[in-house]
Amino acid sequence: MSQSDPVPCDAVGRRIACRDEYGTVRFVGEVASAEGIWLGVEWDNPKRGKHNGAHEGVQYFQCSHPTGGSFIRPQKTNFGIDFLTAVKDRYGQEGNQGIQDNQGNPLRWCNKPIEFLGKQDAKVKQRWLNALWVVSVRGSQVSHVSEEEEISNICPDIVELDLCKNLFASWESVAQITRHLRKLESLDLSQNKLTLISNPFLLSDAFANLKALAIQYNGLTWGQVLDYAPMWPVLEQAYLSSNAISVLERPVGVLQTLTLLDLSSNPLAGADQLVHIAYLPRLEQLILSNTGLTSLYFDDIQPDGKTAMFPKLTFLTIDKNPISDFSTVNELNKLRCLEQLKVSVYSLVECEKNPKTVRQLIIAKLGGLKVLNKMEISADERKGAELDYRKRFGKDWLKAGGHHDPGKNNPDKEFCAKHPRYQALIELFGAPEEAEMEHQKLFTLKDQLLDLTIKCPENPDQKLIEKKLPDSMIIQKVRGLLHRLLKVPGAELKLTYISSKMDMEIDMDNDLKPLSYYSIESGDCILVRW
Q1: In sequence order, what DSSP letters do the residues of 64-98 get, joined into one string?
Q2: Mean pLDDT by 10 residues, the chain (530 residues)
Q3: What is the pLDDT of residue 522?
Q4: I need a surface site. Which of 215, 273, 373, 435 has the fewest CB within 10 A?
Q5: Rounded to an integer, what distance in angstroms lies between the CA atom of residue 165 and that of residue 174?
């Protein structure tokens, strides 16, 4: 705002921007020993502030962080712009600047920017705005609506709306927009600090058809989410990552239509919190990446049974968590419908030393799994993993009370808890014979040798090299080997590899990691450049 602009009468509680920083106005008025009007601002980034709202012993406003506040002059702040102004600026500019997509890039036809010219310019642009169904005014400093009734006339067909990182201060100000977008199904409100009215159900008409909602980086607790939830009567997808959700409560009468819940990068207090969301009747996808979980468990059923929790869950993401043993994998076999899993294989490598082995063990332990870490599990891969698992733990099974005679086959509880699918694999493939178990042990070392092709793509005269390398060989030693073979200083070599299963090139940039760290398999090709 300019130096002559008055401070808005409703400034306290409004969101403001100052350069690249965002904050909330907590105070307007004079400050001791400083002339003129000041705004007391609590910044989203406490490093931007200097104090907690106090000056010379007087507390002018309160901050949640001891250094989150400061005083600034009104003319240095931006109180935001109107929603329709932002839409027109981005999608229907005046003059011959052309029109843009929702990323702000010029729309093109035959590689030329689309422009509206002549007397029909305004009408054509109006028709263009009417046709928009995906709109983004992300980071446009939108704070309010000036002509609320015009929204349904100018852009009535919006289905997806991105309002991320703007200056909305309340759910009411958002509802002033959305209640005129009757086709709206997807809304992103991330990085907005929104206050709530006492009865959120009164705003439910403004979100009547909303199916997907993102509220990320907002500092929300789960209790606040439940308070907001009556506004979203048909919500199916809730993206709530990077908030302050640590303790969960059971949703009662709300969120019952959820099919996807993203709680990633929230500091969950422990696996016991998950029981509170375990009975959402339609939940199919649950994302728990980077939530600090060390384990998962479903204690309502025996190791080889199926839990009543998460009855529809088919997709689970638990990567970037310090889960370091297979007890959690065993627990996941209790889920009735689990088909897709994303998990950090390398957190389990300490148990097995080999990412490929970890993948095989997960597949063998989870009978219904179809996709692991975005890679489909083929019928041959599953059969191989289950046969190897059956042979590998055959001696342990016999020691625990297992027997080739079904009438005498009675392994103890400890073994069954550690290997809950083993009995099912015995029924499927039969008990492992002694010769099989000895054969498995005899060829353990051989199975770890990798048949690799070494290629120099930028030196076509260099012949292909075929080598057998142990998967435990670290990259530094691979460089030394290639130095001797190619007569090129090892430090100058850049190593990548192409998987025989995936058409993509992967860097091998950590000299202290073994080949197994990068999940290299026999048949893969190492590419060498210098």
Answers
A1: SSTT-EEEE-GGG-B--EEHHHHHHHHHS-STTS-
A2: 64 91 93 90 92 92 93 92 93 49 46 40 58 92 92 92 95 96 96 91 96 96 96 98 97 97 97 96 97 93 92 97 91 97 79 76 96 93 91 92 90 93 92 69 55 90 89 87 85 84 77 80 89
A3: 85
A4: 435
A5: 13
Q: Which domain holds residue 160?
A: 81-291+305-311
SS3 category, 398: helix
For residue 432, what are the CA distances in angstroms to 318, 389, 405, 408, 439? 33, 10, 12, 15, 11
Residue 378 and residue 358 share a domain:
yes
- DSSP per-residue string spanning 133-181: -EEE-TTS-EEE-S-GGGHHHHSTT--EEE--S----BHHHHHHHHTT-
- Is residue 413 situated within a structural domain? yes
The reported pLDDT for the residue numbered 129 is 76
pLDDT at 158 (0 to 100): 95
CATH of residue 514's domain is 3.10.20.90
Sheet with 449-455, side-by-side order of all strands: 465-470, 449-455, 525-529, 494-498, 505-507
342 and 474 belong to one structural domain: no
d(CA 258, CA 372): 23
As beta bridge partners, residue 453 has 466, 525
Number of neighbours of residue 29 by Cβ within 10 angstroms: 12
CB atoms within 10 A of CB 412: 11
H helix count then E strand count, the chain: 15, 26
For CA atoms 293, 299, 300, 306, the dihedral sign is positive
Token pair belonging to 42: 């609590």
Cα separation, 526 vs 513, whole angstroms: 15
Beta carbons within 10 angstroms of residue 58's beta carbon? 9
Q: In Å, how far are 326, 340, 364 from 369, measured between CA atoms?
A: 16, 6, 9
Residue 339, pLDDT score: 98
| Residues making up the chain, counted from first to last | 530
- Paired strand residues for 81: 142
Distances (CA, A) of 170 to 14, 136, 173, 282, 338: 9, 19, 5, 30, 39
In whole angstroms, what is the distance from residue 479 CA to residue 400 CA? 46
Q: Quick one: pLDDT at residue 483?
A: 87
Contact 256, 279 (CB under 8 A): no
**Pair 117, 252 in one domain:** yes
The per-residue DSSP string of 413-461 comes to HHHHHH-TTHHHHHHHH-PPPHHHHHHHHHTHHHHTEEEEEEE-TT-TT
**Is 118 contained in some domain?**
yes
The whole model's pTM is what? 0.75
Whether residue 401 sits in one domain with residue 489: no
